[in-house]
Specification:
With 64 residues, the protein is of the alpha+beta class. The chain is built from 2 helices and 4 strands, in the order E-H-E-H-E-E. It has one domain: 3-Layer(bba) Sandwich (Glucose Oxidase, domain 1), CATH 3.50.30. It is 20% helix and 23% strand. The strands form 2 sheets. Strands 1-2 form a two-stranded parallel sheet. Strands 3-4 form a two-stranded antiparallel sheet.
């Protein structure tokens, strides 16, 4: 599989703050995290491929 499309790890959280547990643990593990994504667990379908950009705070559904 091409490295550009290989599954990676990221965290998307419905509710959170800049110093939340999810952010701190993600930073320690070196994985992107975006918090306060309203209704993310309802809006992102199970099994969807998403792009999580922790620098800009964006989550993009690539495929469902």
């Amino acid at each position: 599989m091409d490295a550009a499309v290989r599954p990676r790890v990221g965290v998307v959280v419905d509710v959170g703050a800049p110093l939340s547990h999810a952010i701190i643990v993600s930073r320690e593990l070196g994985i992107p995290c975006v918090v306060s994504v309203t209704d993310a667990t309802r809006r992102i379908p199970d099994g969807a491929m998403v792009e999580v950009n922790g620098d800009t705070g964006t989550v993009t559904v690539l495929s469902t």
